[in-house]
Design a protein that fits this description.
Oligomer: single chain
Number of strands: 18
Order of helices and strands: EEHHEEEEEHEEHEEEEEEHEEHE
Structural class: alpha+beta
Distance between the termini: 47 Å
Radius of gyration: 22 Å
Largest sheet: 11 strands, mixed
Strand content: 25-35%
């Protein structure tokens, strides 16, 4: 792999060593290979790692196979992928409901396999959606950018907004759920609110519209626990319609959709924002509106 990255105007000056270690998060062993093989160039020249690099400079990085051994996976069907954004480092796609983000076994084919076939190389999961959930998912296209995207996710600099249709109505239009989430003691598939042993979980909720039976809400994740939105809303007495684990009201699917994904590109500092649609989600909402009087809240 070989990359040429221009240093954007908004990035402060730093040494080559700081750029590789603190910003690009390149592991120590690989940084050693880059140094000994002289596989780092700034503006086309080999430089000392304590030299300063800043805006308008560009850095070239060459990685050998031993730096990042290629991980081979089964390739899926490229025609099943709906691309929302792509560049040489990552791709965002619209996951359909009923498909896993990644398989649990090497022989299991999931969205990751389809995306890898679409891109033409092995890709890497940055975050996942439950099998029943549709919407925007981010994949790294190389192992170099993967830890950088993982850090953005951990630092809450990747914003994810969901639409959810849930049971009942709310007394507030904007609120935040902070119940800690842990594993269910008797069902390994499920998660529960666990104030003592659970992990921190924060979901910001905004009520968009409601009728006498259901409410459409927008949820923004601050953390990314398994089933977080599903557990938080269910614990409040507002389970998501069609949820096979936490609710029994019939629906054609789990009515949860990852509508929007935003991030700042780590190399260009460009703001990336994509929106995903779902035909089954939208069709169900339209049918609901035609049958019931809908109250829309001002947001």
């Amino acid at each position: 792999m070989q990359f040429t990255i221009s240093i954007p105007e908004a990035l402060p000056e730093m040494t080559v060593k700081e750029l590789l270690e603190d910003y690009f998060l390149i592991p120590r062993k690989i940084r050693h290979f880059l140094r000994t093989k002289k596989h780092v160039r700034v503006n086309g020249e080999i430089v000392h790692w304590q030299e300063t690099i800043g805006p308008k400079d560009y850095i070239e990085l060459i990685f050998d196979a031993e730096d990042y051994p290629e991980k081979e996976i089964l390739l899926g069907q490229a025609d099943l992928v709906e691309e929302l954004y792509q560049d040489e480092h990552f791709i965002i796609v619209n996951k359909p409901e009923g498909m896993k983000t990644h398989g649990n076994e090497p022989t299991e084919v999931a969205l990751l396999n389809h995306v890898s076939a679409y891109v033409g190389q092995t890709c890497y999961v940055v975050h996942r959606l439950d099998m029943e959930t549709s919407g925007a998912v981010l994949f790294a296209k190389n192992p170099f950018v993967l830890p950088i995207l993982n850090r953005l996710l951990e630092d809450k600099r990747i914003s994810r907004e969901y639409l959810a249709l849930c049971q009942g109505t709310f007394t507030e239009t904007d609120f935040t759920l902070r119940d800690r989430i842990g594993r269910h003691r008797h069902d390994r598939r499920k998660r529960v609110v666990d104030p003592r042993k659970g992990q921190e979980a924060v979901t910001h909720v905004q009520a968009l519209e409601s009728n006498r039976k259901t409410s459409l809400v927008r949820c923004q994740l601050e953390t990314g626990r398994t089933h977080q939105i599903r557990v938080h809303l269910s614990h409040q007495g507002h389970p998501i319609i069609g949820d096979p684990l936490y609710h029994q009201m019939p629906a054609p699917r789990l009515m949860l959709h990852a509508q929007t994904l935003r991030l700042t590109h780590p190399f260009t500092l460009e703001e990336i924002c994509v929106s995903a649609t779902s035909d089954t989600f939208d069709t169900f909402l339209k049918k609901r509106k035609s049958l019931d009087k809908i109250q829309t809240f001002r947001v």
